[in-house]
Amino acid sequence: MKQSTVLITGATGLLGRQILFKLLGTEYQVYAVKRAHSTIPIESENLHWIEVNSINDDLFRLVPSQVDYVIHAAALVSYKKSDSSKLFKINRDWTSKLAQDAKKEGVKKFVFISSISALGKNATNNVIDENTPKSDREFLSNYGKSKRQAEEALWKFSSEGLPITIFNPSVIIGPANRYQSSAQLLGYVSDQKPFFTKGLINYIDVRDVAKIVVESLANNRINEQFVLNAGSISYKDFFSTVAKQLNVKAPSIGVPKFMVVFGAALENILSKISGNPAVLTMETAKMAGNKNIYNAKKANKAFNISYTTLEQSVQWTVKEMQKRGEL
User: Fold this and answer.
1) Which of 55, 39, 265, 226 is nearest to 131 (CA)?
2) What is residue 327's three-state secondary structure?
3) Which residue range or ranges hold the NAD-dependent epimerase/dehydratase domain (predicted)?
4) Domains of the chain (ranges plus CATH)?
5) Neighbours of 272 (CB within 10 A)
């Protein structure tokens, strides 16, 4: 019997690495995409690395066999205004190109990792799910816009015969470079910054997302969208959980939104001086005070999910980042 082949993008990133770990415990032949300067995090007999230099490269021509499944986990995550054009080029245009190529190749399922940032915000009770109405008047970061437009492109190809599955995970907790993804939040606490914003953070462990993504390949559910979220917690309590694991003082001064905006402007100046990326930007400042809760009931029922607790996730993430010298 022929082994099924999986093509995965973003394989060296926070989520991509964990998806690879899960895939290597299966019978799939895996072709993982990496950029020329990225290091190879995992090697295995069933894992083959593909090096690309541009999003215009034809990935399917680089795989010697029929591709059965695509997991598109690559993305640019940025809330800097200067990255706007890059966001749409990578998150929207590349997704559209891959989907078009996948349709031509007869791929059995195209799995796309989107974000809760792409979901509609027009909820009367602050509870958001896959069906929450979208509005042109709601605030979306350029990252959220690029992901939403990528989803719209995928639904178009789905109507033309490409089987798709879209996942919208909340903030993914897991080990990464301290200036990337959710690791920035751990770095913020590690630096013993004193302030926190009065809002909620929705979270999920990276290993849980990876498990669900891999399980989705083998089931018969297609042309569906799923919010992935383990829970929500105030930023104050989230930072306290991280601080406890790091054995440092937690941020203890709550600030109103106007002060967050002012802080974003100040941090942007300091970032240019230090050369380190700013954790707080004008876009993240505008999202400050967000009290939305993301409802994952549909995914919980479909995949029978048992979530890693926030404490377990933070403990593992901190230990792994400390091993790497990131904290």
Assistant:
1) 226
2) coil
3) 6-224
4) 5-174+202-232+292-308 (3.40.50.720)
5) 10
Q: How far apart are CA 319 and CA 40, in angstroms?
A: 21
Continuous segment of H or E residues that includes residue 19: helix 14-23
Long-range contacts of 32-41 (CB under 8 A, 24+ apart): 32/8, 33/7, 33/8, 33/9, 33/59, 33/74, 38/12, 39/12, 40/12, 41/12, 41/17
Summarised one tens digit per residue, pLDDT across range 264-305 is 555 565 566 666 666 655 445 455 667 899 999 999 999 999
Ranges under pLDDT 50 in the chain: 282-283, 285
Spatial distance between the Cα atoms of 142 and 283, rounded to a whole number of angstroms: 8
Residue with tokens 């178009």: 156
3-class DSSP state of 202:
strand
In the structure encoding, which two tokens stand for residue 138, read together? 């709601």
Q: How far is CA 159 from the centre of its chain?
A: 25
pLDDT tens digits along 96-142: 999 999 999 999 999 999 999 999 998 889 999 999 999 888 878 89
Residue 227: beta bridge partners? 168
User: Position of tokens 């809002």?
Assistant: 199
